[in-house]
Amino acid sequence: MKRTYSIHTRILLFFIACALLLTALPAYSAALPPAQEAQAALESRPSIPQKPRPVAPITPLPPLVSSTGPFVALTFDDGPSPHTERLLNALAARNVPATFYVLGSQVNQRSHIAARIVAEGHELGNHTQNHRDLSRQSAANIRNEMTWARNAILNTTDQRPATLRPPYGALNRTVQNIAREMGYPIILWSIDTRDWERRNVQAILSHMFDRNGRPTVRCGDIILMHDVYPTTIDAAIITVDRLLAAGYTFVTVSELFQIRQIEPVPGQIYNHLRR
Ligand SMILES: [Zn+2]
């Protein structure tokens, strides 16, 4: 049965429909997608600063050292010697790390000192087994000198030396190629204290301080000393105290690369890591 409505009923229904539509509109506007809603809110409140977008969480590496420098690497060659432990005591008392370019032959004689060097947070580098001038050796001898020293260090300390310092700084293409094959960046120095030549504390200090005792050491310098002379140990302790007082931070050679964010390249020669 078809239902019919009078004209009055139709007008009444029309108004009811309009009223329903008007009440429904605010509800529709409130149901805007969240992004549009947020945008509308931002536009209506322009004085409120926008929060920065959250970024993917990255676990930051702990800072290697809290200081901002100037950074300097102390290096001691030819040990471990009977004088090394006095140096280690002084470095431990000052919480100062160093890098020791040890000889395999000396590590074999004084393995307990080599182990102590590593245990106390210092770095060991490869200074070959017998301190031969590598630039005058056959390729086989060069390889042996580096390998024997590496094995002596590895067997004693479980630490693989990361860098090589050739005796006398003597190099040629063959030495460089073998260093590259064996994964060794070649570390020389920017400050030669010549402590082996003049066994005199003031003479050694003159390479790092001016007449007024002010440091002439630059950030990124690598200082060469030999922990086999008592005068060197005396001079090294004074050097550490004066440079600490002047605000320097001591780091190992590998730490210096990390701070500079330089990837050490095997076979490449580094005299310093100044900026
Ligand atoms: Zn040497």
Order of helices and strands: HHEHEHHEHHEEHEHEHE
What is the CATH class? Answer: Alpha Beta
**How does the major sheet shape up?**
6 strands, parallel
CATH architecture designation: Alpha-Beta Barrel
Number of E-state strands = 8
* Shape designation: globular
Bound molecules: zinc ion
In angstroms, what separates the terminal alpha carbons? 97 Å
* Secondary structure tally, helices: 10
Strand content: 5-15%
Structural class: alpha/beta
Please give the radius of gyration in angstroms: 35 Å
Number of domains: 1
Helix content: 40-55%
The CATH superfamily name is Glycoside hydrolase/deacetylase
CATH topology: TIM Barrel
**Can you tell me the residue ranges where pLDDT is under 50 for at least 5 consecutive residues?**
11-62
Mean pLDDT: 84
Mind explaining what this structure looks like?
α6 (139-157) packs parallel to α7. The protein has helices spanning 7-30, 34-44, 84-94, 104-109, 111-119, 139-157, 173-181, 201-205, 230-245, 253-260; strands at residues 71-77, 99-102, 123-126, 186-187, 191-192, 221-226, 249-250, 269-270. The protein has one domain: TIM Barrel, CATH 3.20.20.370. Strands 1, 2, 3, 5, 6 and 7 form a six-stranded parallel beta sheet that branches. The chain is of the alpha/beta class and 275 residues long. Mean pLDDT is 84; it is low at 11-62. The longest helix is centred in the N-terminal third of the chain and has 24 residues, at 7-30. It binds zinc ion (ZN). Zinc ion binds at residues 77-78, 127, 131, 167.
